[in-house]
């Protein structure tokens, strides 16, 4: 049966709201009249002379009495167009509007306008169908096939309107393809919001109230018009439907834009380019989407990009991220994610940001269960290398580098800053904890610097921690130390004839006596020469890979030493940063010793004590928040408290390093001395890591001589980041000198 309806011609452009959805005593324009930058414009009717000029210029209208204009109005600038319903046209003049090299005269030509408000000094040409839009000032619209708004438009937000069934609500299903972690998109959503909603699924009061808060954060009345912000340019597009577009937005050649909020303003302009199809989503400020991208049921954070045919489906992408040429399905990705290659897949994961995926990496594309309900969770700094293949379910600590290889089983890697290796000669997996600190300091230091300097956001909705040593990673380091020490102790007992401890070894529940034994051995290697020789050869464990194969942990003494250096460096420099020479460190220690902020949560890139997150969850469950804006104020409070909470965390780390004893002046001075030495090590390693590019003979085979190489690459001594590292060393030494007890 045909769905085409036959309507009376005189209703064209009218009855946008009708029946029970139109409040008594109101007309269908009552919501429209509240929209736009200037809803109090002075409109007037056309004069008979103006109507005559319009008709002479081949314009047609169902009812000229419904056309309103604002002075100054020049009817000569409108030609070959059709008008239906209430159309209001702002001031016009005989000027040109130019964007880059694209220039059009003000006015309207060869277009069909249905019940729209058009701002002052707009150029609208060759637009076949524009219906129920409020258009700002100085807007260029050219060669658009269809642009319309329905009376139940939601602009990408996961709400239902008056009279709609729950089944029409648009959900996003991140992390798990089976939909068990589904969340509702909304225009101010951050990755922190998505984390809060998707992770704590066992908290039914929380999830129920988040749905209610989202629904109540928006006006559910029917009749809101789509909007196009002032100074926007839209040209050469197919279909734009139920879309809200901010100021200074540039859209060219899009195939389809439907049910979207596109945030843009003069400080962070969003651009959408050729061949894209975007449906059911929220696009943040300063985003760039070009060249055939497809996105469906998605949220993009501020200053993020989709390029070159990327597919983003059922996913939430954090700020400052770039995805090109690849497939990203059912993911929650925190800020600073990079994925550039057309043969990489990211399926059903939570990636905690500051991450990079190499060509050929397939993360989560194969399932180990009977259903599509697997997940992968990776801490920040996740880097799966060339042609690495991971299966569900996996969990990884922060800053993990995965080398090329097929990883056929589930993985749990609790060691941060590690390298996971597929050893094809032994057909086994190997892990080197603290790899970055020992062998790739340049990348570690440069990435933290790079993320901070590349943050071009003007609208910073949520604080993002970019330092690689922070409360989340140091708690992972302490957990890793427990495992290394406990495993060493278990192997020692096994060598002494007691194999039970090794057979029962559980990384989630390590007896204190076992950790103490391993710590004693690793602290006194000369007392256990034969056993330490065995440990240096690597220890095997069965808790990293779900298979019959054991995984070998490499360089345990060296990685433990590296982890202890990292904790020392973090603890001292963080206290120095907080005290800044204004607060005696001893005073801070005296006032805050014994305080503990416990475990920390990476909530969308913002690090928060888990107790604070639990408190927020409880208050949301108790219905203390009515809108997301109120919840976001809590995030801002956390941001304000963060330097202090981080300093308390650093103090606890130093107490841990001090064997649980309180910090005293001589201990603090000793730690400061160590940090001075560690800073020298960092500076030296950054230089050495980069220097390898110049001393490796094979790196020089494409150059005729060193002079040609230096002309192309620059001298290593002149590298801007290396210079910056040296400057940072001077600042840190100055901080150490000022941080008196």
TrEMBL record:
Domain annotation DUF4954: ranges: 43-487
Residue ranges annotated for the DUF6819 domain, each copy included: 588-729
Pfam families reported for this sequence: DUF4954 (PF16314), DUF6819 (PF20683)
Source organism, top-level taxon: Bacteria
SUPFAM superfamilies: Trimeric LpxA-like enzymes
Biological source species: Candidatus Gallitreponema excrementavium
Matches recorded under InterPro entries: DUF4954 (IPR032533), DUF6819 (IPR049208), Trimer_LpxA-like_sf (IPR011004)
Name the UniProt record assigns to this protein: DUF4954 family protein
């Amino acid at each position: 049966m045909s769905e085409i309806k036959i309507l009376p011609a005189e209703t064209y452009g009218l009855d946008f709201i009708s029946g029970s959805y139109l409040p008594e005593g109101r007309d269908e324009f009552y919501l429209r009249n509240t929209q736009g930058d200037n809803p109090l414009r002075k409109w007037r009717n056309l004069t008979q002379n103006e109507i005559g000029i319009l008709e002479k210029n081949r314009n047609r209208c169902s009812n000229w009495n419904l056309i309103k204009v604002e002075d100054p109005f020049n009817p000569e600038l409108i030609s070959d167009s059709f008008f239906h319903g209430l159309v209001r046209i702002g001031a016009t003049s005989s000027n040109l509007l130019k964007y880059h090299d694209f220039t059009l005269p003000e006015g309207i030509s060869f277009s069909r306008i249905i019940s729209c408000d058009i701002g002052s000094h707009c150029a609208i040409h060759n637009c076949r169908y524009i219906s129920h839009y409020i258009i700002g000032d100085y807007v260029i619209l050219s060669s658009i096939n269809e642009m319309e708004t329905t009376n139940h438009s939601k602009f990408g937000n996961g709400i239902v309107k008056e009279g709609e069934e729950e089944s029409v609500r648009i959900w996003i299903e991140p992390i798990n393809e089976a939909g068990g972690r589904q969340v509702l998109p909304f225009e101010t959503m951050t990755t922190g919001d998505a984390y809060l909603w998707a992770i704590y699924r066992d908290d039914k009061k929380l999830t129920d109230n988040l749905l209610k808060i989202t629904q109540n954060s928006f006006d559910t009345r029917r009749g809101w018009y789509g909007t196009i912000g002032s100074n926007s340019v839209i040209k050469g597009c197919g279909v734009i439907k139920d879309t809200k577009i901010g100021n200074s937005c540039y859209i060219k050649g899009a195939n389809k834009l439907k049910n979207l909020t596109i945030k843009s303003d003069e400080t962070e302009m969003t651009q959408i380019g050729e061949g894209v199809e975007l449906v059911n989503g929220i696009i943040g400020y300063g985003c760039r989407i070009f060249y055939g991208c497809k996105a469906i049921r998605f949220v993009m954070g501020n200053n993020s990009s989709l390029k070159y045919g990327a597919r983003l489906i059922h996913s939430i992408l954090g700020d400052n991220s770039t995805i090109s040429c690849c497939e990203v399905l059912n993911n929650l990705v925190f800020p600073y994610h990079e994925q550039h290659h057309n043969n990489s897949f990211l399926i059903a994961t939570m990636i905690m940001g500051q991450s990079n995926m190499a060509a050929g990496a397939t993360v989560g594309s194969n399932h180990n269960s009977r259903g599509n309900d697997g997940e992968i969770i990776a801490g920040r700094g996740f880097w799966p290398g060339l042609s690495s293949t991971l299966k569900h379910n996996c969990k990884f600590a922060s800053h993990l580098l995965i080398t090329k290889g097929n990883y056929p089983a589930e993985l749990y890697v609790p060691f941060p800053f590690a390298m996971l290796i597929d050893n094809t000669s032994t057909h086994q997996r190997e892990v080197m904890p603290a790899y970055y600190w020992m062998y790739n300091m340049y990348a570690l230091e440069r990435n933290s610097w790079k993320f901070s300097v590349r943050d071009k956001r003007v609208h910073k909705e949520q604080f993002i921690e970019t330092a690689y040593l922070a409360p989340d990673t140091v708690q992972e380091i302490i957990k890793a130390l427990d495992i290394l020490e406990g495993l060493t102790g278990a192997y020692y007992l096994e060598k002494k004839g007691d194999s039970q401890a090794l057979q029962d070894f559980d990384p989630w529940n390590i007896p204190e006596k076992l950790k103490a034994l391993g710590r004693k051995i690793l602290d006194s290697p000369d007392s256990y020469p034969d056993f330490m020789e065995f440990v240096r050869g690597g220890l095997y464990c069965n808790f990293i890979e779900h298979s019959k194969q054991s995984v070998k942990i490499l360089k345990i003494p060296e990685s433990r030493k590296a982890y202890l250096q990292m904790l020392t460096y973090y603890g001292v420099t963080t206290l120095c940063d907080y005290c800044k020479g204004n607060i005696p460190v001893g005073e801070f220690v005296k006032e805050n010793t014994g305080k503990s902020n416990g475990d920390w949560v990476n909530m969308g890139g913002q690090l928060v004590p888990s107790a604070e997150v639990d408190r927020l969850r409880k208050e949301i469950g108790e219905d203390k928040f009515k809108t997301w804006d109120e919840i976001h104020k809590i995030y801002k409070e956390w941001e304000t408290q963060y330097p202090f909470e981080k300093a308390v965390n650093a103090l606890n780390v130093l107490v841990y390093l001090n064997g649980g004893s309180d910090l005293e002046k001589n201990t603090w001075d000793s730690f400061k001395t160590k940090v001075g030495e560690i800073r020298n090590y960092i500076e030296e390693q950054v230089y050495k890591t980069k220097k390898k590019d110049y001393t490796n003979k094979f790196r020089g085979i494409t150059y005729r001589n060193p002079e040609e190489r230096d002309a192309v690459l620059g001298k290593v001594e002149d590298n801007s980041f290396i210079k910056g590292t040296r400057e940072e060393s001077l600042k840190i030494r100055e901080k150490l000198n000022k941080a008196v007890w």
